[in-house]
Amino acid sequence: MKIIVCVKQVPDTNEVRINQETGTLIRDGVPSIINPDDKNAIEGALALKDIHGGHVTVLSMGPPQAKEALKEALAMGADEAVLLSDRAFAGSDTWATSTILAAAIEAIGGYDIIFCGRQAIDGDTAQVGPETAEFLNIPQVTYAKHIKAVGDRVQITRYTEYGDYVIEAKMPLLLTAIKELNEPRFPSVRGIFKAYSTDDVKVWTLDDLKIDMTQIGLKGSPTNVFRSFVPVKEKNSLIIEGQNGKEKAAALINKLTDLKLV
Amino acid sequence: MNFKLSDAHAMLQKVAREFAEKEVAPLAAELDLTGEFPRETFEKMAKCGFTGIGTPIEYGGSGADDLAKAVVVTEIARKCAATAATLSIHSIFPSVIMKFGTEEQKAKYLPLCADGGKLSAFALTEPNAGSDAGAVKTMAILEGDEYVLNGTKCFISGGGQAEYLIIFALTDPAKGLKGLSAIIVERGTPGFSIGKIEEKMGIRASETVELIFDNCRVPKENLVGKEGKGFNIAMTALDGARIGVAAQALGIAEEALDEAVKYMKERVQFGKPLTALQGLNWYIAEMATKVEAAKWMVYNAAFLKQSGQPFTKEAAMAKLYASETAMFVTNLSLQIHGGYGYMKDYPLERMLRDAKITEIYEGTSEIHKVVIARAVLG
């Protein structure tokens, strides 16, 4: 079974602070981690490999320091790691990112399952997984909380707020993992030292991919962020005064009538 | 000169910290109350390869080095000194087998101790032989193809839980210290039983017991190294083990310092956080300086050991200094916490009790001064 896991390196939001004036993240000194849902995706892939055998490739797009996240995935037990890093990719929104990831997945080829995390804690869009599946033109099942591979098919329990769906789909397909899927394993000591003893993270640039330049980077991104800000929490409460309950109730009715709420 | 952990060691530190926060911290207070041995945590540490650090990969170990071991023990000790002690003491047996054992002993025991989840122990101390290892009375007399063990060991960490133990006994009582030998005894061997289980002040979940040998017969193949080399083996093992105790002490001290910093920022008295009080800030300065010094002493001793250089003096210095630092920092951190520090709702009183043993076991502070003075004076 050949599995590709898409992961993103994100700032550890437990330690993130916001610059109140600019509305941007203060990233100085904030440690980077593998996006939590993506860790569940890695574990999902490794667990399938434990049962069925196979090969797990981890794939990430990001600046050179995203190598750290891929090294951690290798230490957890992934077989191969590819980092997509090029100035031309900078500023990509979810559309552009999915375009690049899909091109890289096509370049790796021969896959049975693509795993993504549900969403990244820095953007929370939950779009990159589904968009990648669309670009690859393969089935997608999101919010996977249980997975079982049977023959050339995968049975997935899909978690939604309305109830669970049990879905079967034929490979190749794309799954997005949620934290309910599993408990990610810790990287082993042996895995850590092996991951750092060789420089086995492949770095691919624009030249390694077949890609339409108009669809990627800042210029190829249909989404533009005009401003980001921290919502101001306002508490406007009104205390209804009165001698007794009856008076207070009458005052409340008057107020609601004034506000045209009743 | 490069005062920085390698990328691999830094990643290991991060992973060990996550492990400690997730798997160790939630149990620490309860383990301290019950004194229950953290068997499940030990098995999880085996799965991550923590128990196999230092054992070569070809024997089922994790490979890596002494600095890796020190980094992991430190991180575990931040959250639970008893669990860290279990890990650190366990690692003595495989290191002795690796250095002095036969090929058969290595093939048999190392994979089981490395990642097989089997606990091991080291038994030197006796009621009348603490710092004075020469006063050991336990005997192991060769009869045919077997050694017959008789005697009592005391204060043996993990002895009641261990699958494999290395026992120091006299194979030639007439020769005294030169008749001391190291012998492997497996749990369940007839004639070997567990005596008193000690009630301790700290590291309560690291079970400490008495071992009784009453005509306990083990095959002569269980001899480690040569007859009469026991003292040398024990001292070599303790040199390495001291780095483990120093790492435990460092972990306790680091955590106590962090707790003090956190509390001083949160706690408001006289309308201001405690950080506004210069008297307390000076405590923090002293604590942080000692923790920093202890850290580099521990790392340096580990580095010297793994690079094959003499390290006895540096390991003794690191153990002496880190354990005194653990006592100093836990005591001041508790003081900064005031009444809350004295209560069991906060971890400080446990950490102070746990810190004390680091000044005593694997050689007292006083014995370490003897070792250091001898090395310095020549």
Key words describing this protein structure:
heterodimer; A: 262 residues; alpha/beta; Rossmann fold; 2 domains; nine-stranded mixed β-sheet; two-stranded antiparallel sheet; 6 helices; globular; B: 378 residues; alpha+beta; Butyryl-Coa Dehydrogenase, subunit A, domain 1; Butyryl-CoA Dehydrogenase, subunit A, domain 2; Butyryl-CoA Dehydrogenase, subunit A, domain 3; four-stranded mixed β-sheet; four-stranded antiparallel β-sheet; 12 helices; 10 strands
Can you tell me about this structure?
The complex is a heterodimer of chains A (about 260) and B (about 375). With about 260 residues, chain A is α/β, with parallel strands linked by helices. Chain A has 6 helices and 13 strands. In chain A, the strands form 3 sheets. Chain A has a 9-stranded mixed sheet with strand order 11-10-9-12-8-1-6-7-13, with helices on both faces. Chain A has a two-stranded antiparallel sheet with strand order 2-5. In chain A, strands 3-4 form a two-stranded antiparallel sheet. The model of chain A has no long low-confidence stretch (mean pLDDT about 90). With about 375 residues, chain B is an alpha+beta fold. Chain B has 3 domains: about 5-115, Butyryl-Coa Dehydrogenase, subunit A, domain 1, CATH 1.10.540.10; about 120-230, Butyryl-CoA Dehydrogenase, subunit A, domain 2, CATH 2.40.110; about 230-375, Butyryl-CoA Dehydrogenase, subunit A, domain 3. Helices cover about 55% and strands about 15% of the residues of chain B. In chain B, helix 3 runs antiparallel to helix 8, helix 5 runs antiparallel to helix 7 (about 230-265) and helix 9 (about 310-335) runs antiparallel to helix 12. The model of chain B has no long low-confidence stretch (mean pLDDT about 95). Chains A and B meet through helix 2 and helix 5 of A and helix 1 of B.
